[in-house]
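Ig-like domain-containing protein: structure tokens wanted.
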Amino acid sequence: MAFPNKLAMFVRKLFLVFVVSTAHSGGYFGAYGRHVRNIEPNGISVLNGADSNQDSLPRFTEPVLNVTVTVGRDALLACVVDNLKGFKVAWVRVDTQTILSIHHNVITQNPRISLSYNDHRSWYLHVKNVQEVDRGWYMCQVNTDPMRSRKGYLEVVVSPTIIDQETSSDMVVLESTNVSLTCKATGYPEPYVMWRREDGEIIRYNGENVNVVDGEVLFITKVSRLHMGVYLCIASNGVPPSISKRVQLKVQFPPMLSIPNQLEGAYIGQDVTLECRTEAFPTSINYWTTERGDMIISGSDKYEAVSTDNGYKKYMMLKIRKVSKNDFGSYKCVAKNSLGETDGVIKLEEIPAPTTIKIITHHSTSQIKKEYEYESEYTLPSNGPPPIKEPPVGGSAGSNVFATVSSLLLYVNLYLFVCSYLYKLVLR
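Answer:
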């Protein structure tokens, strides 16, 4: 791989820089500079002399931990070295082969990089206002011979952002055409994009009813009025906050009309209501006309026209007060928009007015000397005879008593007749 070779070249250059810059002061490499013979691809220096006492050399007490930070925040990389003595610590950006700091001095010209240390043991590299270009490997190294080092990775994550120029805006389309809604988002890691309806309704997609459609593109074949609404493009990648964009889809179609009851009946003096339901987009103009084609004006003592909107649906109601002979006939509800016009007819016919009658029933017997009487009212509906009703409790008791007494008298008379006949036979 090319990476080890590049790293070896970088370390070689770094050693040369240290040697040249500190040659007169016995600086970074000190007495060890004359022993450097070669730098292997793995970044370990090979000496051309005797090894130093390993126990007296600096050692890393812990690894340089990987750090994850959101873009725009500050990052801190820590390097802890024991037994440093006269050796020096340097921070290096591995992928760009940039020397960031040597001992107490910041070498890089990047103003966002700073250095701090504690007790000649802990060395901290500060990166302010982290940007995506800061993502990569950072090395903490000590100028032992061979060089000792530890690496840590700075991960820079970016919350999602929706690219407006590449994302669909509000759309108006004709019914039965194909529609494609697109949502482009950036971020690190790469965002996950999904579509759903703002009102929580299901989406008819690829012949199925779904709540969520995954992916940047929502493609709808033969769009219908049922697809009309606000759609949310939501992008997320685990880095808060997630982001969304509203896209409103409007579907145009000519008016359609339905009538619950095409035939209505009313009697003179009655109030009656006619109903009509329409669907249209753009929103239709709705009104009522008489049989002669005259437009009905609402607000008079005679007529009250009410229209209620629910999205692309509209409910029409015409109330006619105190129906007269002249009000019977046909009424038309009309709906029109820029794509077409439709109407429906409702016929109003006269029906007989309901009537009220009184029924009085008498039940009496001479033996009981008691009269049972009840009175009831029946309202005859206009569409047929009154229903059969059971008599009140009093009337039912009178009828039963009358039937019982009549039967008893019949048997008593028969008994007396037989007794009289037998008595006459005995006397003879």
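Residues 15-52, 364-380, 384-399 have pLDDT under 50 and may be disordered. The domain at 2-158 is CATH 2.60.40.10 (Immunoglobulin-like).

Cheers.
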